[in-house]
Each structure stands twice: as C-alpha cells, then as structure tokens.
C-alpha cells in the first residue's frame, strides 16, 4: 500500500474508533436505563467493533512498514488473521444475543422504556448511517479491506438502529391498545431478528480470509497468469512453464518458472530482463502489494 493511502486508511480508522467508542457508551448506558436488551446489544456490537478497529489500525500501520529480518515477506499475513478473528467474534456475540433473546421471550418478555429507547435509536441511526457514508466515500480510492469491513460494520450498526427505531415506534402505537400485552416481547423479538441476521453477515469475510490463510490460489489471478504465459511461451518459443499464485490479504505473490530449450540463444541478461518487464506489466506493473518472481532455466526438473 502506498504511504499516502496508508495515511488515509489510518486517519479514517482513528475517526471510526472514536465515533464507535462514543456510540458504544451511549448504547450500553441508555440500554440499561431504558431496559432494552436490543440497545445494549447494539452498544456491545459497537464496543467490539471499536476494539476490532484498533486492531485494524495497528495492522494498517504494519502494512505500510517494510519487513525485517524475521518477517522478510512483510506483514501481509496479519491482515487475514485479524479479519478471521474479527468476524468470528461477531458471529459468537450474535449467537449469544440470539440465545438471550429466546430466553427473554420464553420468560415473558421484558418491560422497556420506549420513550428513551426511541430517542437513542434515532440518534444512533443518524450517526451510524453518516459514518457509513463517510468511510465508504474515503475507501473508494484506496480500496482497503479494513475500511470496507469498517463501512460494512457501520451499515450493520445503522441497520440495527433503524430496525430498533421502527420496532419502538410500533410498540408506542401498541401501548394502550388491545395489543399492549405484546409490548414486552417487542425488544427481545427485535434482538432475536437482529442477532440472527448478524450471525451470517461476517461469514463471507471469514471465508475469504481463511482462503488467504490457507494460501488457496485465487482462480481469477491464476487464470490471468496462465493465459498470458501460454501466449508468451508461443511467441518466444520457450519449452514450457510453471506458475504459482497466492493472495495474502491485499498482497499478491506470483512465482513463474520458464523452461527454455537447451540450444536457446540468449545474447545477454538484459534480453531476459525485457521479458521479465513484459510479464510484470501484464501482471499489473510495479506495486508494493505484488511479489513477482520470474526464473529462467533449461532444466525442466527444477520447475
């Protein structure tokens, strides 16, 4: 990642951490005062998100730094590990909230101060949707996975708050009517719906990050490399090749071995560098996020 893009990513993450922490405190305190488990869950969700944003900020700083003697390939591997940890925590918290919601409904529901809950839900909705728009706008240029996940978290938080707002408005209309006996079930019911939905949301992120951790070759990148090399081998009349690709976080690792015929005439090393440059350009040019290794050999057993 370029230094300028890394600085933008870190600045946005810092702002997000502050706002998330603020919302978390508001949600937990007001949730306790209003007696709403759903608002408490929303606050807890924001608290976990704030902790994960701190981790994301630390990793973002690592990714803008160079590797060292111990981490010679850099710190790209840390990113998918954090994403898996982040997503797994959200899944576990959602499962726990769902269990609490079911238990609350089975025990007769929960009395809630809907007047306070309405105010809190409205405030949290506006702030969350606003932060979603801000983070998403900033990420259009740098395309950071961390900012994408952060924007997704803000969208989820805003959706939760909007759902709470709608539910509490309905509860207000039900209060004093013949359906008043159902109002204690509104809060745990909404909590159950939210937690069920949020249980599945991080799974795609966790799945993709696990693919990176296990070095599963991305099909699109592998296909791109092979199609180009098939043509290159024919044009330069090389014998064959082998290629290996992997994606770790936002970094791409491409290793290419080209077998030249034993009698192949090579005038100088610069002529091979021309071919290397052609391959590098086809793979996307120079980038700190791309590790490209190209080897020429006449011994096919080495590939």
Written description of the protein model:
The protein is mainly alpha-helical and 303 residues long. The protein has 2 domains: 214 residues, Cation efflux protein transmembrane domain (Alpha-lytic protease prodomain-like), CATH 1.20.1510.10; 84 residues, Alpha-Beta Plaits (2-Layer Sandwich). The longest helix is centred in the first third of the chain and has 32 residues. It is elongated. It starts with a helix and ends in a 6-residue tail after the last strand. The model has no long low-confidence stretch (mean pLDDT 86). It comes from Legionella parisiensis. Its main location: membrane. It is a multi-pass membrane protein. Pfam families: Cation_efflux.
Tell me the layout of helices and strands.
Layout: H1 3-34, H2 37-63, H3 78-106, H4 114-142, H5 145-174, H6 183-200, H7 203-213, H8 219-236, E1 240-248, E2 251-259, H9 269-282, E3 290-297
Parallel strand pairs: 2-3
Antiparallel strand pairs: 1-2
Helix pairs in contact: 1-2, 1-4, 2-3, 2-5, 2-6, 3-6, 3-7, 4-5, 5-6
Give a brief outline of the structure.
This protein has 303 residues and is mainly alpha-helical.
Distance between the termini: 31 Å
Q: What's the main sheet like?
A: 3 strands, mixed
Mean pLDDT: 86
Query: At the first level of CATH, what is the class of the largest domain?
Result: Mainly Alpha
Count of DSSP H/I helices: 9
Q: Helical proportion?
A: 55-70%
The CATH topology of the largest domain is Alpha-lytic protease prodomain-like
Overall domain count: 2
Read across the widest sheet, the strand sequence of neighbours is: 1-2-3
Q: Architecture of the largest domain in CATH?
A: Up-down Bundle
Topology order in helix (H) and strand (E) letters: HHHHHHHHEEHE
Unreliable residue stretches: none
How many E-type strands?
A: 3
Main location: membrane
Keywords: Membrane, Transmembrane, Transmembrane helix, Transport
GO molecular function, one term: ferrous iron transmembrane transporter activity
Organism: Legionella parisiensis
């Amino acid at each position: 990642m370029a230094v300028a893009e890394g600085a933008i990513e870190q600045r946005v993450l810092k702002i997000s951490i502050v706002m998330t922490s603020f919302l978390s405190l508001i949600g937990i305190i007001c949730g306790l005062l209003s007696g709403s488990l759903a608002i408490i869950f929303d606050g807890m969700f924001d608290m976990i998100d704030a902790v994960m944003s701190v981790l994301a900020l630390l990793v973002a700083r690592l990714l803008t730094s160079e590797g060292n003697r111990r981490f010679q390939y850099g710190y790209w591997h840390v990113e998918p590990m954090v994403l898996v940890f982040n997503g797994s925590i959200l899944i576990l918290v959602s499962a726990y909230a769902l269990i609490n919601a079911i238990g609350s409904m089975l025990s007769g529901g929960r009395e809630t101060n809907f007047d306070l809950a309405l105010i809190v839900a409205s405030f949290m909705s506006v702030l969350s949707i606003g932060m979603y728009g801000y983070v998403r706008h900033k990420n259009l240029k740098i395309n950071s996975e961390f900012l994408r996940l952060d924007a997704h978290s803000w969208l989820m938080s805003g959706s939760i708050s909007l759902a709470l707002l709608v539910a509490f408005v309905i509860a207000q209309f039900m209060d004093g009517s013949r359906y008043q006996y159902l109002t204690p079930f509104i809060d745990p019911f909404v909590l159950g719906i939210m937690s069920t939905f949020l249980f599945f949301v991080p799974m795609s992120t966790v799945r993709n990050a696990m693919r990176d951790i296990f070095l599963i070759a991305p099909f699109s990148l592998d296909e791109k490399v092979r199609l180009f090399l098939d043509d290159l081998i024919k044009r330069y009349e090389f014998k064959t090749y082998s290629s290996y690709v992997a994606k770790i976080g936002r970094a791409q690792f491409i290793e290419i071995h080209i077998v030249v015929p034993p009698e192949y005439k090579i005038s100088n090393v610069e002529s091979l560098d021309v071919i290397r440059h052609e391959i590098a350009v086809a793979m996307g040019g120079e980038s700190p996020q791309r590790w490209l290794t190209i080897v020429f050999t006449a011994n096919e057993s080495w590939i």
